[in-house]
Design brief:
alpha/beta; about 10% strand; two-stranded parallel ribbon; 8 helices; four-stranded parallel beta sheet; single chain; about 40% helix
């Protein structure tokens, strides 16, 4: 079990149940899109973020990114860490049909994949040595690597994100944040080669 300083924010109760087996920290569910109009839940999340920080762990589908972006808009960036899960096709056991996008959510992933996402997020895991990656990736690096601001850069980003099992519709800024959670600049350059 991972003891984490930050509280984890997830979309729903099945995500919370799944993570409850893996992490020893408060887990707050947004209730999906309900968080958009639930002022009390927003206030609670703000207070927790201010006190101990939060780790956002939403599904890798479009809805998960809408919720993630909403939370980024109501909480100071300095109080948020992001864990990104890979886009893996499949269907959760409890569901009769796959999701609209055909992707597994937090509840459908293995404990190993979730633990890896949490570790790569930069979350403060109590009792584990924090590994710092040197060579932070910048927007200039993305430009120089042809991943932004150039001809076919959007297509290049999609190919790279797909190859890395990251959501292919990340914005450039979200991709930059995810890449800095996962790779150093040197590692990224080697991946692109």
């Amino acid at each position: 079990m991972l003891s984490i300083k930050e509280a984890v924010i997830v979309e729903g109760r099945y995500d919370k149940i799944k993570l409850g087996e893996l992490v020893d920290t408060p887990i707050i569910e947004t209730g999906g899109f309900r968080v958009f109009r639930d002022k009390e839940k927003q206030s609670l999340i703000r207070q927790i973020a201010e006190k101990r920080g939060i780790l956002i762990l939403t599904d890798s589908d479009a809805a998960g990114f809408v919720i993630r972006n909403f939370l980024k808009g109501i909480i100071p960036e300095s109080e948020i860490k992001h864990a990104y899960i890979p886009q893996l096709g499949g269907k959760e056991k409890r569901k009769a049909q796959p999701s609209k996008e055909g992707l597994l959510g937090v509840e459908g992933l293995s404990a190993e994949i979730l633990a890896d996402a949490i570790r790569r997020s930069g979350a403060t895991i109590i009792g584990e040595k924090q590994s710092k990656k040197s060579g932070e990736i910048t927007k200039t690096d993305l430009f120089e690597l042809g991943l932004s601001g150039g001809e076919r850069s959007a297509e290049k980003r999609r190919v790279l994100l797909k190859e890395l099992n990251l959501p292919t519709y990340l914005t450039t800024n979200a991709m930059l944040a995810a890449l800095n959670c996962l790779y150093s600049l040197e590692e990224l350059k080697n991946l692109i080669k």
